[in-house]
Design brief:
By secondary structure, the chain is of the alpha/beta class. It has 9 helices and 8 strands. The mean pLDDT is about 95. The structure holds ribulose-5-phosphate (5RP).
């Protein structure tokens, strides 16, 4: 399967986020992410309103949850998200509860890799039943993508994870990941801040078509 494209709506108001979607992005994109910044500003209503406008899209609630999975997971998944993120530093008990809550709704969790993690720990998450992972370069550190990332992503794919890649990604980065079984690429600023966000998605798609 070819990688999907996800737009990260890290806007600080729902009004601004919806402006991005209605410009054409909402129709062209595969996955809509209610970004961490948007959820901080607007809460779960951001998810329910996006769901009501885009009933057939995959929607991610990027809350980067750390605890209280019993409450947090139903809060976002029952608002209309298909996927929700949990930070890799969360306790295994949080991962287990989150996975149970998501699976019982026919939905999934995604583990966000920030800070320390290793493959042994990743295998434990996979054993708990969570098979989505987000390989992330933090916005604050803004590192370049390189060989070390490709090696890590490859090892996560080999465990069986569906790997999503994010952090300052634009269409020129796509070729670095050529041939890897990437689940999705997330574009945040590269799409939202582009002069023509829909055209930027088409540029992502053209690059994906070249390499997969
Ligand atoms: C920040 C995020 C962003 O949504 C993600 O990194 C994509 O944004 P950008 O492409 O602007 O880096 O999760 O915590």
């Amino acid at each position: 399967m070819k990688p999907l494209i996800q737009v990260a709506l890290d806007n600080t108001s729902l009004e601004d986020a919806l402006k991005v979607l209605v410009k054409g992005v909402g129709d062209e994109i595969d996955i809509i992410e209610a970004g961490t910044l948007l959820l901080a500003a607007e809460g779960k209503r951001a998810v329910s309103i996006i769901r009501s406008l885009y009933p057939n899209k995959i929607i991610v609630a990027d809350f980067k949850m750390a605890d209280a999975a019993n409450v947090m997971v139903p809060m976002f998944l029952d608002s209309g998200a298909d996927l929700m993120t949990v930070i890799c530093a969360a306790d295994p008990a949080t991962m287990r509860i989150a996975n149970e809550k998501a699976r019982s709704r026919g939905k999934n969790m995604q583990i966000e890799l920030y800070g320390p993690w290793d493959l042994e720990r990743a295998k434990v998450w996979y054993g708990l039943g969570i098979d989505h992972i987000i390989y992330h370069h933090s916005r604050d550190e803004a590192k370049e993508w390189g060989e070390k990332d490709i090696k890590s992503i490859k090892s996560l794919c080999e465990v069986g994870f569906k790997v999503t890649v994010t952090g300052g990604i634009n269409p020129d980065h796509i070729k670095l990941f050529a041939g890897l079984p990437i689940y999705a690429f997330i574009g945040g600023r590269s799409i939202r801040e582009s002069e023509d966000p829909t055209k930027e998605i088409l540029r992502f798609k053209a690059e994906i078509d070249k390499y997969w």
